[in-house]
Amino acid sequence: MKAIWTGSIGFGLVNIPIKMYSAVEDSTLDLDMLDKKDHANIRFKRVNERTGKEVLWKNIVRGYFVNNKYVVLGKEDFEKASPEKTKHININQFVDEDDIDSAYFEAPYFLEPDKTGDRAYVLLRDALAKSKKAGVGQFVMHNKEHLCIIKAQDKALILNRIRFYQELRSPDTLKIPTVKSKPAELKMAVDLIKQLSGPFNISKYKDDYSDKLLKIIKAKSKGQKAPFKKMEIVHSSTKDLMAQLKASLSGPKKTAS
């Protein structure tokens, strides 16, 4: 596994050199894009819009259009913008993880101590676990500033990238109904939630869509047709919520697939 970011974590005067690794892997199938006519692979090229010629990655730079011209930026310009955040994550606050709305979470990364950071790494991990807190910090990766939380998970420190406040849209533009729930229906809905409640075990949930898609691919490779039942959006023929809730409560309890 290759480190995608190297730098350090700091809290107070304690500095911990670390390496960052992605904590996730894609479970979707790797599908190629093909020409419908002859199934030839589709290739994307980086082309100069003036000459029409392909441009190599090493000859591509980034620029910002201002005053009718492009200002080209180099690696050193991005580092100058925030040199301390390109290589360092300063934890400036500790919070209860439950205080952060799940809508802000983006992507998790494993942190590993680098060089002389073993003891300080273990100290931060154990302190976070004992206090049940998460550290909040900011850092720069891929020329973009990220907000993050760092917490203890089993034997490791895990960093979760989280969104900035201004990145979440407001729901004010949605057409939300203004009707109020009827007390009897609300009570029965709560009873249904209780009936379907239980400890959360992530291992019970599987990405079976990719598995089913792979079965279809294998069947087609043999000239066979996989069984198929088209699903349509079902609009209930009755508006009697109470009847639906009663039927739900009397039916079998569903479990994670």
How would you describe the overall organization of this protein?
It is a single chain. By secondary structure, this protein is an alpha+beta fold. The chain folds into two domains: 5-29 and 54-167, Ku70, Chain: A, Domain 2 (Beta Barrel); 178-227 and 235-250, no CATH class. 25% of the residues lie in helices and 26% in strands. The chain is built from six helices and ten strands, in the order E-E-E-E-H-H-E-E-E-H-E-E-E-H-H-H. It has an eight-stranded mixed sheet. It has a two-stranded antiparallel ribbon with strand order 3-4. A hairpin with a 2-residue loop joins strand 8 (134-141) and strand 9 (144-153). The longest helix is centred in the middle third of the chain and has 14 residues, at 118-131. The radius of gyration is 26 Å and the shape is extended. The two termini are 30 Å apart.
